[in-house]
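User: Sequence for Spore germination protein A3 below. Tokens please.
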Amino acid sequence: MKKKGMLAALSLLLLLTGCWDSRQTEKLSIAIGLALDKGEDDKKVKLTYQFLVPKKIGQDGSAQDPSKVVSTSGNTVHQTIRSTALKNFPVFSQHLQVLIFSEELVSDISLEALINQFIRDNSIRRSSEVYMTPGAADSILKVDGASDPASDVIHSISENRASTIKLLKPVTLNDISIKMQSDLSYIMPKVAIEKGQLQLEGGAVIKNNKYHANLSPSQIEALNLLTGNVIGGVIDSRHDGHLFSYEVFSMTHRVRAMRQNGKYKFVVNANIKGRLSEDWYLGEDSFNDQYIKNIEKSVQKDIKKRVEQLIHVLQHDIKTDVTDFSDNARINFPKEWEKDRFNWDKHFSEAYIDYHIKATIQDFGTKGATKSR
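Assistant: Structure tokens for Spore germination protein A3:
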């Protein structure tokens, strides 16, 4: 009986040790955002954290921003993170939402070196989103978002892809790690300050792990239409000189990879469905099938033109693949891929790309009933 009693007591002790390593949130610097710039005072890098301050949350019922910003410079990322503890409580990064890099820093130092510590550190989530900014990255975190920290605002804006085609799909630390392991170029969203407000605008192309070029919001729209990364949004176009808006309901997308004359060929077939949400032509007749077909042709022509202009920019101006067509080449031509992957941007620049789009209008709002097409 005594033995059974001792075992029971030991079992209870084991249950009581569940929180042996717990720490009070008031004594942690809970990081929700991190900006990286060129260092100050001859240091290599400057890290600016946005910390959540638990004591400020719901304080006196006020709507103040419950965060603070702390900057530290150092020669390596890890050293700088630890040096932040000289000014604050130790950094707790498991809730880190966004990392923001300045173009100046990534033009000077390889992104592979800058994120090396984050990839190695198990305490940082691989799902943390990564952004580029044309100016000082720390200024982004200092934007006053009223009751919302800048990091939360950026994350919230990135979720608006159902409303606009001009937003890139969020890029995470894990996405970048995979691209780096494959020695491939990629694109990440850009964040900027416009009239005192945070705005996602365009994308930054990363080649050889350094900042290489920019794509504008309209080029991001064309890129999404090329790659099929469309959830929803509105496309403005013209028919017989009159403006109209086409609201996207859905998009299906297929890429076929082939080899032709020793080069890759990609045939893209896309189908887009939506509604005529706005028409500035006073004589419009949405109930007329031919009128609707003409609008559909205008949408198709406009999308094809925008996408082909982007393809020319990617292949001839920046000579970089940010389309992920490399996956199609790898899957369909594994032997050729093993040789071509080390110089993929060159092979992409020489590839044949045929883009085909079919647009369907299923609805034209209160001006007409929904059509089954």
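Residues 26-215 form one domain.
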